[in-house]
Structure formats: structure tokens, C-alpha cells
Amino acid sequence: MPPKRKKAVLYTETSAKKAKNTEDNISSMQKYFKSALSCEASLCKYSDRKCEEWFYKYADENKKFIGPVGIERLCKDLQVEPEDVVTLVIAWKLGAESMGYFKLNEWKNGMASMECDNIIKLKSMLSSLRDLLKDGAQFKKIYRYAFDFSRDKDQKSLDITTAKAMLLLLLNNSWSLISDFIEFLNQSKYKIINRDQWNSLLEFIRTVSSSDFSKYDETGAWPVMLDEFVQWYLDKTKMS
């Protein structure tokens, strides 16, 4: 039998090495993706380092805060609109001081409390964050937080335009008279809403829940604005 050609032997050895390397690479890739999928499924352990790196993905050029543009990108990644009330709940969980801005310390402290260090984890929490709005005690905290969150920090009151926008955001799905109240504000003399008026409105809604105001006590200690709303609404319904 004639001897095997050396070239064929070299080809066979090389092929074997390539095949082994390919198998090793496939095995490594399988282990990597298995690990990655396992990590995603369990959502992994919270990492302060990853959370900070995540912050810088959205941070402004100076890296000190996430501004309006970064928040818009965050909302896009979460697949929610910036005007979605859940964004307010997220801001509340972060303890954000100013509307449209998240500071690094706010981000890290708030995300740590939720054990979120990536977009997948935060997205998985959106449903539970929305559920907080259905809890009376939690909603009251979020509602009161919204006043300070949305006001100019050099002002003690909310300008009427911002107040109406926040009230619609918070109450549109829970108070049947919100449209009437906004209409009342539009034709009223009020240019601002102060803290007492803001806080009292929620108590008013919970206490005087019916549209006929049968539970309304005109001798109660409600702000004048709410007394005027009741009278305006009753006059309006009589005319219709």
C-alpha cells in the first residue's frame, strides 16, 4: 500500500483541531448564554456598581444627573410614555426632588430600595409600582409628594397650569368629577394652588365622594376654593 500523502495527514490533524476548537467554543457559548438566561430569569443579585453604570447610560454630559432627555430615553426603554403616571411613582421611589431630574444619589438609593440595577428589573416592577396607586395610604403619600416634586423650589405654591396637569395625571382614573374640577379652575380666579388646598382636595374627594355632594358639610373647615367648587358645580347641574 502506498504511503499516505503528508498533505492529507496535515489536513486531517488540522481539521480535528478545528473541530475540537469549534466544540469548545460552542460549549463556552452555551455556558455563557445559559448563565445569562439563568441570571435574567432570577434577575440576579443587586449590584451597586451596575446600578451606577446604568445611571450613566442616561446621565447628562456632566454625569451629575439624568435630565429630561435622559428620562425620555429611560421611558422609551421601559416602553412607557413620559406622561404615564408610573413615571411619577418611579420618581417618588427615588425620592427625586425636582421634576425632570434624577440625581445620582437619588437614583442609587431609590433603585437599591427596589433592588433594581438594570432596565429588565425595573420593567418587571412596573405592574407592582402601578398597584401602589390603588393602595389608599400609598396613594396619599404619592399625591402629597407630587406637590413638592412639581413646584418651583423658590415658590411655596403650584402654578395653576402645572397643578391641573398633575391633578389630571393623578386623579383622571379615580375621580369622576376631575374634568368638572378642571373646568371650574379654568373659569376661576385661581392662579396658584397652595399646599393646604392641594392636600385638602384629596380628603374632600374621599369624604364627599358622591356627585350630588350629599355628604358635603358647608360648615366644615374646607378651603374656600372647595366651597366655591361645590357651589359652582351645583349651579351648573341645575342649569343642565
UniProtKB/TrEMBL annotation:
<dbReference type="Pfam" id="PF03556">
    <property type="entry name" value="Cullin_binding"/>
</dbReference>
<dbReference type="InterPro" id="IPR042460">
    <property type="entry name" value="DCN1-like_PONY"/>
</dbReference>
<dbReference type="InterPro" id="IPR005176">
    <property type="entry name" value="PONY_dom"/>
</dbReference>
<feature type="domain" description="DCUN1">
    <location>
        <begin position="46"/>
        <end position="234"/>
    </location>
</feature>
<dbReference type="GO" id="GO:0031624">
    <property type="term" value="F:ubiquitin conjugating enzyme binding"/>
</dbReference>
<protein>
    <recommendedName>
        <fullName>Defective in cullin neddylation protein</fullName>
    </recommendedName>
</protein>
<dbReference type="InterPro" id="IPR014764">
    <property type="entry name" value="DCN-prot"/>
</dbReference>
<comment type="function">
    <text>Neddylation of cullins play an essential role in the regulation of SCF-type complexes activity.</text>
</comment>
<dbReference type="GO" id="GO:0045116">
    <property type="term" value="P:protein neddylation"/>
</dbReference>
<dbReference type="GO" id="GO:0000151">
    <property type="term" value="C:ubiquitin ligase complex"/>
</dbReference>
<dbReference type="GO" id="GO:0032182">
    <property type="term" value="F:ubiquitin-like protein binding"/>
</dbReference>
<dbReference type="GO" id="GO:0097602">
    <property type="term" value="F:cullin family protein binding"/>
</dbReference>
